[in-house]
Amino acid sequence: MTYDVDLFVIGGGSGGVRAARIAAGYGASVMIAEEYRMGGTCVIRGCVPKKLYVYASRFADDFQDAAGFGWSFPEKPVFDWPSLVAAKEKEISRLSLIYANNLAKAGVQIVETRAEIIDANTVELKRDGRRIRAKKILVATGGTPVLEPAIPGVEHMISSNEIFDLPEFPRRLLVIGGGYIAVEFASVFARLGAKVTLAFRGENVLRGFDEDMREGLRVELRHAGIAILPATLPTGLDRRADGLAVTFSDDETRVFDQVLVATGRRPHTQGLGLENAGVAVDQVGAIKVDARSRTNVASIFAVGDVTNRVNLTPVAIREGHAFADTQFGGKDIAVVYTDIATAVFTTPEIGTVGMSEAEARAIFDIVDIYRASFRPMKATLSGHPEKTIMKIVVDGQTDQVLGVHILGHEAGEMAQLLGIAVRMKATKADFDATMAVHPTAAEELVTMRTRQARYEKAPLMAGAGSIAAL
User: Fold this and answer.
1) Does the active-site annotation cover 405?
2) Which end of the chain offers a freer environment for a tag, N or C, measured as fewer CB atoms within 10 Å?
3) According to DSSP H, which parts of 146-297 are helical?
């Protein structure tokens, strides 16, 4: 059987681009299809523009804090939304072009069109109907926002796809959701000058994160002026002359300029033609794959958010690289998903790696907790009420550090380096033996010597059917 290419990649996001480039470096003939702009969610409407807007929002605090350090401004600083949008667009266009250029330099053929799977070895380019025969097909189409709850008026809501490019700045913004996307946008727009309300289903934000980080962030969101409505969701929305009137489950009605839904994302698998080749998907539409990104069809693979494993850009990149190494580089690599460092880019931000306290206590017999809460040095002169919170979770029997969690400035940067230590199975004694860099916030990580709590599982009593935590 003859093929037009060795590899056809559907999706020009982080995972697909990395896989295409590495496979081409091994000598494979590669074609990649992207129907929108090269770079995918991360570059175009995710990580990169979000971080740029985070930087923009933090100037509000900087201007305010400057007075404590002797600075004064003759006039109040003024924020211009169109200028930020234009600057963002210029930067992501530059990055998108770099992605395309790097692919071209590697010898990858780029087709700007949607592609649909026809059978196990054939894709159709929807722009011109051309069919390409590929020895292997990689699906890397990412995810798409879910507009839920499905209530009357949902068509007037926006998702994270639209929030970056609004023609007018929303002075009154409702954010629906309590996950990291929701709290990040709430934090950003509050500092840019919007009156922000955050409504979510649960009792607290960031379900799944360490409890101290969740509670600490909620306090900081309130300090930023964000109105928090836990256990509250909209039940209906109407467009009126004065804005979008939203009725909530508490029977209150409030008016906003924009309503951002950030309640989750789903794998972008609709319209791909997966059923034509018999590719298996789960109940949410995610492509089922094994540890080496193989589907149930021998010639078809998938990486990134479309598989709904760990939906982070660096994970998609690692999966794409491992796929290319394994399929075209003569290696056998399975991605390891434990101890992945991550960050939530609120202000202050959260950086975390490893197990939360709750996760550790559910698994280990003895868990030691080291915790510190302090006012960062910058706040001593600025007068800002913020607190930095740091927490180390330790196996009380082996002294291995199981997780580290930080709420504070540059927490994401710290988490990246902590990820190395946790992955190498560093012990609390290793942390204690490390010299501190002074004065820094990070030095607290190696000077926390006093154990704040120890949790031990009680031994099973005769006839008992459960283990009680002391």
Assistant:
1) no
2) N
3) 180-192, 211-223, 274-277
- Checking if the pLDDT of 149 tops 80, the result is no
Q: What is d(CA 270, CA 250) in angstroms, rounded to the nearest whole number?
A: 35
Computed on alpha carbons and rounded to an integer, the radius of gyration of the chain in Å comes to 24
Q: Which domains does the chain have, with CATH numbers?
A: 5-144+266-328 (3.50.50.60), 154-263 (3.50.50.60), 342-456 (3.30.390.30)
Q: Say whether pLDDT at 258 is over 90.
A: yes
Give the closest residue to 8 by CA, choosing from 26, 25, 29, 36: 29
Residue (of 344, 65, 345, 348) closest to 219 by Cα position:
348
pTM: 0.94
Catalytically annotated residue among 156, 268, 409, 438: 438
Evaluate whether 217 touches 224 at the Cβ level (below 8 Å).
Answer: no
Q: Is the dihedral of CA 425, 429, 430, 434 positive or negative?
A: positive
Task: Using alpha carbons, select from 313, 293, 408 the residue that is nearest to residue 99.
Answer: 313
pLDDT above 70 as % of the chain: 98
DSSP 468: -
